[in-house]
Structure formats: structure tokens, C-alpha cells
Design brief:
Length: about 800
């Protein structure tokens, strides 16, 4: 029987070759009708034999194009009409044109790395796109970073000003061609043009542009620095094998010790400097092409080892990525060596993506600019991943992943905006069962970062169809993200405690409504009592969060100054463990800090001046790192903890023991016995690796011991681990194994970072959880209360 069905497909279905795929399926089954993009996703109006349509729908949903993600398919019966053929027709924008209404439901595809087919053409002298640095097709290239508006059609992208030549137009309109309706399609006759500009020139010098890529490569080989325009912004590139070049980049960028990322041409090139396991190769070569943290090899040449040490000082791991644009492939081939590729920004600023802004901000760093005339619509930094416990883990979720949504099992009660944390900021827009986590915004340390957050929120609101009725933010009123939430014209504001949001973020990934034992370990987060939390055991469900345990409080002498100076936390923990006898200990730490500074810290802590109590495990890592002489001053966030993990012997079975006590309703893990045991080991000249390894074991043992007590009291056997401390592969692996072996169901984060980069998802999910109990008001915290707690 002849039937007609109108099928609406929602999800990531634009810019991924879905329309040509539908066209192919329909014509193969002799079906008639059309397919088009619209603001909701994709509409397929199909007519023909009923069994053939059933088969068409089955193939459509079970075997979509590789880059597509279908979230919903809805079909309705329509009246049969006279029809010939099956067509791809112009997009429908009527829905989005209705004033005052945001109805969009489609999902924009992330940017993807150059596919193998395009790479073959790029390197084939016989191909018409040979050496063209903007080659792409339906299966690869820019998407999210070039789109201004929906539907995803060329006029709504930054390619709108490039008029297709006859040959590109022919490919674009041919359903059998790989570039059929590939919106960024271009060639050297009609597409973007590459230019090489010396930093001290106001405009491009034609003498540099005989071969801009070769010119940039020669500049790099000469130990100079080139700003390279990528998909989501500018990189700063230099020779990764040259200590001189790397140190020059550090000086100019004012980035004293934070590791740089390295771009290599192939996985074999990565193996030349790092140990690369199968799971890590899969990440390196995935369409997302993240930076992957890989363990450094010990058997490389002294000269290369010196360069790698300059790239990642005192770190066992190096961030490595493969080229993901045609330009990267060409530049690596011309340079013939690995390249440092770090974000094109000044310290604490967002990555530069606008050409004029990049020239203004990066001229003091770069000697030249390898740029082009295709604008970037949205800045988007590189994603970062590592493998922990044989599973991929996101450290920074950005290019290649944003704006792909996180699907949650319980619906949001209204449209929600969550503005995230102060550090590693992301925001989240949520509706229905979808949470759209943004690209990486960065640390909100200045007005330019806040503007980037505001611009990102405005862009996403339009793209993903969310008009927020609720805004969720951190409990801390001093966070710039919290202040932004207060300025927004959104009816309901919900303040969410930092560590509650961490655990809710993990729960959102796994569709949990509770109860769970949440273990939230990080550096800093304002607690309900005004203290600085960071070593928390929470009981979380839809009714809220109850603190059932924590690391014992010690002073945070100097507040933020203690975060930058781990030696201060060593003094604080020594005073907590030994009292007035601490200074008589035979520790080199006291010589390093000096009598005057030590006296000042003692007075601050004794008088409780700018020394708020903290339960932070991140600061405990700092203290131990300083005690062992690993790190007294931190040049970037988390440095001491990273270096302590790198120093640890992963094979030691030794451990230390926390003292568990506290009131009946609260377990307090006192670190004093651990500090005393570490001091004893230092005095007896035990090795740093052994002590660091035993400290990691002690933390894992403490997590298990507290979880057991909570399980005994509550019957809850599910444990969610979150917070930046769980970026530590050694601690996470041991904790997961210990808890699992003891019968706990353990949940860790995979789709979003466990650090503050995933916090906005948790803030939004707390609103969804509250709606189950209809107690969203329970999470409302007045500004007066939080300001009083901070004081």
C-alpha cells in the first residue's frame, strides 16, 4: 500500500551528511518526497510502499551517518499526494522567524578533524585541492565554530561571503558526491586565503606569501614564534625540539612553568617521546582530536629530553595531539618536527579568535601570524583528555565535544541556565532531558573572561533554543559567575553549594537520583558554614545534600596566598599536628621559609586573621608536596598536586592512617597522624617516591573507611567520585578498585570533567533533582546569608 509519512528527526543531524544519507536511502527504495533542514532538526516527507518506508526508517535510526546523533524521531501519517523523485529542498526557517519565541531543537555538530579522504586529496599532487589548507567535506571540518544561526546552511555561517566556484557548486549539489551540502566547501579558486604576516607589519607582506606555510615553517625552525589561526582561535607555535624556542615562548607569554601541548604528525611520532597505549591511540586519532596526556619516555636522547623538560617541567606527562586541520598537516610536514601548540592568549585571558584582537594582543609574543580570511564565529579551545583506570577521562571539554548535549534521565522542570564556577568556567543550558555544556571559557579572572562568558551564553541561548526561567550559580557571592547570575533578568535564582554541584554533575552523567555517597575532593569551594571546603563526604539525593564527613579543618593562612604558596599549607598542617613543638622539627622547610615569614604565619593563624578554616584535600596535597621539597611555590593551579603524583611510587604498598572521629552525625578525618608519619619518614631519609606513594594509599584507604561508615549508618552502597583531585590517575584508580572490591557501586565522570569544568552541569542537575520533590526553594540561598558566611 502507498503511504505518506512526515518524519521529524532531532539531534545532531545538521552538518553531518544526514540529508544526502536520507536521499540515498530513499532513492534506493524508490520512495518519493523530500528532506530539509529546519530549526528543529530535520524533516523528512516520504511517500511510497509502506514496507519500504518501514525499512527506510529502520536503517535511518539504526545506522545513521558516523558523526550524527539522533535524540528523537517522531512520525505522523499524512495524505498521499502525486509526487516524482526524492529531493533535498531549501531549509525552513519559519519557526525561528516568529518574534519572541525560541523553539529550536536541533543540535549543532562539533568541529571534527580532517578525515582520511580529505587528507589523501590534500597530499595528492594530481588532486585539484592539493595543498589547499581549507579542504573539507561532509565528514570533517568546521561546524560549531563557523555557525552564526540556524538552520545550519552556508548563509548562516562565516563562509557566507565566499561564493562557490562552478566546480565546488557542482560537488555541493551532487547527491553522490562526498561534499554534497558540505557548507564549508571551498577550493583555492573560491575559498579562504592564507596569509603570512610579520608581527611588525601593519598588513601582509606579499614577499612572505609565495608559500605562507613554508615561510611559517622556516620562521619556526629559526627558533621564532608564529601565531597560527586554527578552528576556534589562535595557537602560538614554536619548535618543540628547541629549548631556546620554548624558553622564549615562556618568557613572552609569562607562563613560567605550566606545561605546553605538543602537536606531532602521527601516532608513531608520539611514541618517539611518550609511552602510548592502545586506548590513548584511540583518543589521539578520534575525530575530536583532543590533547592527550601521555607518560614521557625515559629512553629518549638527552637533547630531546631537555626540550621535553622545558615543555613540561617536572612532569611525567606531556600533552600531545595530532593535527586536526589541513593547515596543521601542511605546517608539520614543512617544519619536519614536533611543534609546541599552545593557546594564543596572554596569561588569564581567553584564547584570541578575532583577527584584529589577535594582532593587538599577541604581537608582543609572536614574530609572525599565519592567518586567513575565514572568520571564527565562536572561540573554542582544545579539549584535553587522559586515560584513568583504562577509561578515557575529560580534563577539559571543548573543541570536538561542544556543543554536543549531555542526555539526562529526569527532565528539567523549566529552561535552566547554570553559570558554573570561577575557575575552569563553563556554563550549561538545559531543557527537557538535554543539558548543553558549553566550550571551555577559562578562569574568570578579568573582564575579558566575563565578556566571553556573557557572549557565549547569548550565542548558545539562540542556538540551542533555551530561554531560561531559572539561573543556578555557585554559593560564593564573590565569584564573577555568581555576580553575573544576579545581573541577569531571570525570574528564579538558585545558589548551589560547590561540592553538592560536583556530585550532582557525576549523578547527571549516570542518570542517578540518589541516594549516593558523594566524595568531593578538590582545592576550594565555599561551604555552608563559611569555611573553605574541599574534602567532603555528602549524602545526596533529590531532597538535597547532607554533609556526613569531611577532612579535619586547618587554617588557610593568607587565603588565596596559601593556594599560590604550598609551603604555607605545610606550616598549617605541621602546626595542627604538632602544635608549638612543630618548629623544633629537623625539617629543611623552616630554613626555606625563614623565621620572619614563619612568625607572620603563626600570628595570622593564632589570631585567625585572613586564615579561614579549610577541609581541602587539594591543600593537603600542597602541604605534603612542600614537606617533601617537591613544590613550595605554585606557578599554576594544581601544580603541586600534579608534581606529587608524578613523584609517587605507584608500586609501594605502604600507607599512612587518618584518624576518624567527630560528632555522631559527622565523620572527621584528621590528617595529623599522616603528617606526623610523613615527618618521621623524612627524618629517617625515606625516599620521596615512597612517601608520596604511601600518601596516595592513605587517601584511598581513608575514602574507603569513611564510605564504609556511611554505608553502615545509611545502607547506601553507591559512591560518586568528583572534584579536581580525582584527575589524579593514581588516587582514582586505587580508590575505584578499593571501593569496588568492598562491594560499592562506584561512579566516576567520563562525559564531563570532574574538575570545575563540569560544575555547571551539576548546578543545573540540582534544579532537576529538586523538582522531583518540588523543593527548588530549598536551594535558594539569599545573598545576605552567603555574605555573612564569607565574613
Amino acid at each position: 500500500m502507498i503511504e505518506r509519512r512526515v518524519i521529524a528527526v532531532e539531534g545532531t543531524v545538521q552538518g553531518v551528511g544526514f540529508r544526502p544519507y536520507v536521499h540515498s536511502l530513499a532513492t534506493a527504495r524508490d520512495l518519493r518526497g523530500f528532506v530539509r533542514n529546519d530549526s528543529g532538526g530535520l524533516t523528512i516527507d516520504v511517500q511510497g510502499d509502506g514496507a519500504a518506508i518501514d525499512d527506510f526508517v529502520s536503517h535511518l535510526t539504526s545506522n545513521p551517518p558516523p558523526l550524527a546523533i539522533i535524540s528523537r524521531v517522531h512520525a505522523s501519517i499524512a495524505e498521499v499526494q502525486p509526487r516524482n523523485g526524492f529531493w533535498i529542498v531549501a531549509s525552513d526557517r519559519n519557526e525561528s522567524a516568529q518574534p519572541g519565541r525560541i523553539k529550536r531543537r536541533t543540535q549543532i555538530s562539533p568541529d571534527f578533524a580532517t578525515c582520511d579522504d580529505c587528507l589523501r586529496e590534500l597530499l595528492d599532487p594530481a588532486d585539484r585541492r592539493y595543498g589547499y589548507p581549507f579542504i573539507n567535506c561532509t565528514n570533517c571540518g568546521p561546524r560549531f565554530t563557523i555557525v552564526h544561526d540556524l538552520p545550519y546552511d552556508r548563509p548562516h555561517t562565516t563562509m557566507a561571503s565566499f561564493r562557490m566556484c562552478e566546480r565546488c557548486r557542482s560537488e555541493y549539489e551532487d547527491p553522490a558526491d562526498r561534499r554534497f551540502h558540505a557548507q564549508p566547501i571551498a577550493c583555492s579558486d573560491c575559498g579562504p586565503v592564507l596569509r603570512l604576516i610579520a608581527a611588525d607589519l601593519p598588513v601582509a607582506d606579499d614577499a612572505l606569501n609565495g608559500d605562507p606555510v613554508a615561510g611559517a615553517a622556516w620562521i619556526i625552525i629559526d627558533a621564532a614564534i608564529v601565531a597560527v589561526k586554527g578552528l576556534g582561535g589562535y595557537h602560538l607555535a614554536c619548535d618543540a625540539t628547541s629549548v631556546t624556542a620554548v624558553e622564549r615562548l615562556r618568557r613572552r607569554k609569562h607562563r613560567e612553568e605550566k606545561p605546553f601541548a605538543v602537536m606531532v604528525a602521527t601516532p608513531d611520532d608520539a611514541r618517539a617521546i611518550c609511552l602510548v597505549e592502545h586506548a590513548e591511540v584511540a583518543l589521539l586519532t578520534s575525530p575530536e582530536r583532543p590533547i592527550v596526556l601521555l607518560r614521557r619516555r625515559d629512553d629518549i636522547t638527552p637533547a630531546l629530553a631537555e626540550a621535553i623538560e622545558a615543555i613540561a617541567p617536572r612532569n611525567r606527562f606531556v600533552g600531545v595531539m595530532l593535527p586536526y586541520t589541513p593547515l596543521h598537516h601542511l605546517l608539520l610536514a614543512k617544519a619536519g618536527r614536533p611543534l609546541v601548540m599552545t593557546s594564543g592568549n596572554l596569561r588569564d585571558e581567553p584564547i584570541a579568535f578575532d583577527d584584529d584582537d589577535a594582532r593587538a594582543r599577541l604581537t608582543t609574543i609572536a614574530d609572525a601570524f599565519l592567518t586567513h580570511d575565514r572568520p571564527i564565529a565562536t572561540r573554542c579551545d582544545d579539549s584535553v583528555m587522559r586515560v584513568i583506570a583504562e577509561a578515557p577521562v575529560l580534563i577539559r571539554r571543548s573543541r570536538g565535544f561542544a556543543p554536543r548535549p549531555i542526555d539526562v534521565r529526569i527532565p528539567f522542570p523549566a529552561h535552566v541556565l547554570a553559570v558554573g564556577a570561577h575557575l575552569k568556567n563553563t556554563f550549561c543550558l538545559a531543557r527537557g532531558n538535554s543539558a548543553f555544556l558549553s566550550h571551555h571559557i577559562g578562569d574568570l579572572e578579568n573582564s575579558s573572561a566575563v565578556r566571553s562568558l556573557e557572549d557565549g551564553v547569548a550565542h548558545y541561548r539562540d542556538l540551542v533554543g533555551v530561554d531560561p526561567a531559572i539561573v543556578a550559580h555557585d554559593l560564593h557571592p564573590g565569584y564573577l559567575s555568581s555576580q553575573l547570575a544576579a545581573r541577569l533578568d531571570i525570574p528564579v535564582r538558585v545558589a548551589v553549594q560547590h561540592h553538592h554541584a560536583h556530585i550532582a554533575s557525576c549523578m547527571a552523567e549516570h542518570g542517578l537520583t540518589g541516594p549516593v555517597i558523594g566524595v568531593a575532593l578538590d582545592g576550594t569551594g565555599l561551604g555552608d558554614d563559611g569555611a573553605i571546603w574541599g574534602g567532603e563526604f555528602l549524602l545526596v539525593d533529590s531532597s538535597g545534600s547532607q554533609r556526613v564527613g569531611h577532612l579535619g579543618y586547618v587554617p588557610l593562612p593568607g587565603g588565596d596566598a596559601a593556594v599560590r604558596h604550598p609551603i604555607r599549607m605545610a606550616v598549617a598542617h605541621l602546626r595542627a599536628a604538632y602544635g608549638s613543638e612543630a618548629q623544633s622539627l629537623p625539617l629543611s622547610l623552616f630554613d626555606r621559609i625563614g623565621a620572619e615569614k614563619l612568625s607572620m604565619l603563626d600570628q595570622m593563624m593564632a589570631k585567625k586573621v585572613n586564615s579561614p578554616p579549610t577541609s581541602s584535600v587539594g591543600r593537603l596535597f600542597d602541604a605534603v608536596a612542600s614537606l617533601l621539597g617537591v613544590r613550595d611555590v605554585a606557578r599554576f593551579e594544581g601544580q603541586a598536586a600534579m608534581e606529587l603524583e608524578a613523584a609517587a611510587d605507584a608500586n609501594t604498598r605502604r600507607s599512612y592512617t587518618f584518624a576518624l572521629g567527630g560528632p555522631d552525625d559527622q565523620i572527621v578525618a584528621d590528617a595529623s597522624p599522616v603528617i606526623r608519619a610523613i615527618v618521621d619518614d623524612i627524618v629517617r631519609s625515606a625516599g620521596t617516591a615512597e612517601i608520596a606513594g604511601a600518601f596516595h594509599n592513605a587517601l584511598s584507604d581513608m575514602i574507603l573507611a569513611v564510605a564504609r561508615r556511611v554505608r553502615l549508618a545509611t545502607g547506601v552502597h553507591r559512591v560518586a567520585l568528583s572534584g579536581g583531585v580525582f584527575q589524579n590517575a593514581l588516587l582514582t584508580s586505587r580508590s575505584v578498585c578499593a571501593l569496588t572490591d568492598d562491594g560499592f557501586a562506584v561512579y566516576t565522570q567520563r562525559q564531563v570533567p570532574c574538575n570545575d569544568g563540569g560544575l555547571s552541569l551539576g548546578q543545573a542537575y540540582v534544579v532537576a533533582l529538586a523538582a522531583i520533590e518540588k523543593k527548588a526553594s530549598d536551594f535558594q540561598v539569599t545573598r545576605a546569608r552567603t555574605e555573612e558566611a564569607c565574613a
